[in-house]
Amino acid sequence: KALKLIVTGGAGYVGSVCAARLLEAGHEVVVVDDLSTGHADAVPDGARFVEGDAADATAGLLAEGFDGVLHFAATSLVGESMQDPGKYWRGNVFTAIRLLDAMREHGTPRLVFSSTAATYGEPERSPIPETAPTMPTNTYGASKLAIDHAITSYARAHGLAAMSLRYFNVAGAYGRYGERHTVETHLIPLVLQVATGHREQIQIFGDDYPTEDGTAIRDYIHVSDLADAHLLALQHAERGVHRIYNLGNGTGFSVRQVIEACREVTGHAIPAAVAPRREGDPAILVAASDRAREELGWKPERTDLYGIVADAWRFTQERAQA
Ligand code: UDP
């Protein structure tokens, strides 16, 4: 059944890919984005676009009657969240509470929320299941965890059908939608900037981790697989219940392995230099995504690291030509 949906943050990386996939699946999409980090030209064709605050603008729309909200809009820089925590408590948590109140007021039945692996902090074991303790090591993760808790209580008290999806390392691109942050901090796009000549070299943040090659291991998930999970989550959401799912490939790759994949895909030498560890970076973050596979029937299709990097590279080159 076609649903009428609001996608906050639909001008951003993950939000634009998900909005595009929702439209392809026949749903009606209104994108709400304040363009603080998103790009107006990333809003998918076929979506109505309302520029504004994720809570205020959405609240203004909800009276029209919507089947659900997918809430992607957020600030998500770990370092910044430690320097300026208020931006994260106000911008992420307070905005989400106001959004929940607006949804309650208008009887909007479904919510899919972008949570994060950063809610777990330094894991006790790997891969990380949803039952692992949540002890975030940074304000960004703490803000997302606080929202998860708020959603749980709103779902119970007010009958909201809610899903939180905890992303691991999202990467790759989908069609004309990809990663184009003004302040780029993510490994794969930074490595590709070396290949395009926009950066001299890539810094490896720490090579003394207790891993095989000494560099940190992450679980890279293709943004299109991530989008699939959002569509499934919408279908499986149940009134009064808040479910939480990890989304990752279940396989980890080290920083060195990622750089090597980028060298192979781009044909560029990509000089790398070892630098100190980045504060708060755990050694290994890999998802156990069995719950999403079993309960949502989710199956990531693009798990190959080279394929993920190749899609990101194609997107980077197309952007350079545009
Ligand atoms: N990383 C790195 N050099 C960089 C950027 C990132 O070595 O210029 C490392 C980072 O320390 C982490 C991994 O690459 O171990 C992935 O970092 P990213 O910021 O992409 O995602 P995160 O895991 O922090 O969400």
State mean pLDDT (0 to 100 scale): 97
Low-confidence runs of at least 5 consecutive residues: none
Enumerate the distinct ligands: uridine-5'-diphosphate
Encode the helix/strand succession as letters.
EHEEHEHHEHEEHEEEHEEHEEHH
How would you write the strand order of the largest sheet?
A: 3-2-1-4-5-6-11
* Helix-and-strand structural type: alpha/beta
Strand content: 15-25%
Between the first and last Cα atoms, what is the distance in angstroms? 36 Å
Q: What is the helix tally?
A: 10
* Mass-distribution shape: globular
Fraction of residues in H or I helices: 25-40%
Radius of gyration from the CA trace?
A: 19 Å
* Quaternary form: single chain
Biggest pleated-sheet summary? 7 strands, parallel
Total beta strand runs: 14
InterPro entries: Epimerase_deHydtase (IPR001509), NAD(P)-bd_dom_sf (IPR036291), UDP_G4E (IPR005886)
Protein name: UDP-glucose 4-epimerase
Enzyme class: isomerase
Pfam families: Epimerase (PF01370)
Q: What attributes does this structure have?
A:
alpha/beta; 3-stranded mixed sheet; about 40% helix; globular; binds uridine-5'-diphosphate; UDP_G4E; NAD
Summarize the structure.
The protein is α/β, with parallel strands linked by helices. Helices cover 39% and strands 18% of the residues. It has a seven-stranded parallel sheet, sandwiched between helices. Strands 12-9-14 form a three-stranded mixed sheet.
